[in-house]
Design brief:
The chain has 418 residues and is α/β, with parallel strands linked by helices. It has helices spanning 3-15, 19-27, 39-44, 51-66, 68-72, 84-94, 102-106, 113-126, 132-146, 148-160, 163-169, 196-208, 223-227, 230-247, 258-267, 278-287, 318-327, 355-363, 366-375, 385-398, 407-414; strands spanning 188-191, 213-215, 251-254, 274-277, 292-293, 302-305, 379-382, 403-406, 415-416. It is globular and about 75 Å long. It binds iron/sulfur cluster (SF4) (2 copies).
């Protein structure tokens, strides 16, 4: 690596050094409490997968370039030079971490390894060594925000084609708009993923609840967050914020995508609208008696996987349990509880990288498969697209003997009018 590139990368490093990050970098006592906390280490037993080991790669670079001692006496301060080899180590550390933050809840100092890995991801972007596909997908989302008019017609046609399927789940009255789009003053702006499975059940439930809702032109997923690019994360987020402001909606409801919800909830700043996950909205409908379901529809043992970004990292834990208590008499919670729940192994962009990561994803999530099997449930519900894909792969790989289902599709399939 030449000096010019190194200097550019160090500027990026510096841009991440806020007070919290410096604290994480300076506090680790190497107590080892986080060792067993990471599902990757717990599943593979490899030292390089210990949370503190990953962070140490960043910490040594920090000591070398941002601490006097490291600059003057590198050998005494365990500092490390930023080289091409260091970049390879950063890649390995960052793209084997799903950002689940389980290690953080065990660490006595609350050191956030996911945040430290965001430095690694930014350096990889600066060196053009990040997974290219994630950047391409982020760029496509940003472009769509700039030129929505080019996409509108195709989008509206696609939506029209889904209407019949929505009506099969919940009958519309004459004159009703089955999938409303671009409704000024709607109470809810629903932000879905690109795909019928994210729109049809949600639309049926909104209609059953008599909601004044409108579908966003944009997909919820934020590839900028997966690849760790703060500028693109913000641009992708702004498309939705601007649409919500233009339509003057009261609430933005994010579909079953944990990262999209966490990013919207935590990064959108003070806005005149509320941000909710679709799971929270559905729990509300049940509580208010706005939807009814056939309680005998799923006459089997059901368990629930808490998506890390929805539960541990954004606090949506009670709502899915409340919903499932309405749907089955045999709900079997996993152990440990939602705060300490094992990650499915698919976050941080790993599922989006598809076949490239499947071998690692299966090996690194053995503890998740064991956790599911212990419940002996036959349905494994979840509320995140990434988790659903990863759990489906785990189901095949580890013969978990469950049906993996989206919580929203279970509700939509069980809807009744009385
Ligand atoms: S954030 Fe999750 S995947 Fe990353 S080191 Fe911590 S426990 Fe492991
Ligand atoms: S638990 Fe916290 S302080 Fe202890 S080794 Fe892990 S990151 Fe460091």
């Amino acid at each position: 690596m030449d000096q010019k590139t190194r200097n550019e990368l160090l500027k990026l490093f510096k841009s991440k050094l806020n007070e919290a990050m410096r604290l994480y970098l300076e506090t680790c006592t190497r107590c080892g409490v986080c060792t067993e906390a990471c599902h990757v280490y717990a599943s593979t037993g490899q030292v390089k997968h210990i949370a503190a080991y990953r962070s140490e790669i960043i910490r040594r670079l920090y000591k070398k370039y941002f601490k006097i001692r490291g600059k003057l006496w590198p050998s005494l301060s365990e500092s490390k030079e930023l080289t091409d080899v260091a970049l390879e180590e950063l890649f390995e550390a960052a793209y084997s971490c799903t950002g689940c933050r389980r290690c953080m809840v065990y660490c006595p100092f609350g050191i956030d390894t996911q945040m430290l890995m965001s430095i690694a991801k930014l350096l990889l972007i600066g060196a053009n060594t990040e997974p290219e596909i994630l950047t391409l997908l982020a760029d496509t989302s940003v472009e769509k925000g700039k030129s929505i008019d080019l996409f509108k017609e195709g989008f509206l046609q696609g939506i029209k084609n889904l209407e019949k399927e929505v009506v099969k789940k919940w009958k519309a009255e004459a004159g009703d708009s089955v999938i409303p789009v671009d409704v000024m003053g709607a109470d809810i702006l629903y932000v879905a993923l690109a795909g019928a499975h994210s729109i049809i059940p949600a639309a049926a439930i909104f209609n059953a609840a008599g909601e004044n809702w409108t579908l966003s032109f944009f997909e919820a997923v934020n590839f900028g967050a997966f690849v760790g690019d703060p500028t693109k994360t913000k641009l992708i987020l702004d498309r939705i914020i601007n649409e919500a402001l233009r339509l003057k909606v009261k609430e933005v409801c994010i579909c079953e995508c944990g990262t999209a919800f966490r990013v919207m909830k935590q990064l959108s700043g003070k806005q005149p609208f509320k941000v909710s996950s679709i799971t929270e909205v559905h729990a509300r409908y049940f509580k208010e008696g706005r939807i009814k379901i056939d309680p005998g529809k799923f006459n089997t043992a059901i368990t629930y996987h808490d998506p890390c970004q929805l539960a541990r990292n954004a606090g949506v834990m009670d709502e899915p349990r409340y919903i499932l208590s309405q749907m089955t008499k045999d709900f079997r919670d996993m152990t440990p509880d939602p705060t300490y729940n094992w990650c499915c192994g698919g976050g941080g962009g790993l599922v989006a990288l598809g076949d490239e990561t499947i071998d690692f994803r299966m090996k690194s999530a053995r503890v998740k498969a064991d956790q599911v099997k212990k419940t002996e449930a036959r349905i494994l519900a979840t509320a995140c697209e990434n988790c659903h894909s990863q759990l489906s792969d785990l189901n095949d790989h580890y013969k978990m003997n469950v049906e993996v289902k989206f919580l929203s599709s279970m509700i939509a399939d069980a809807l009744v009018s009385e």
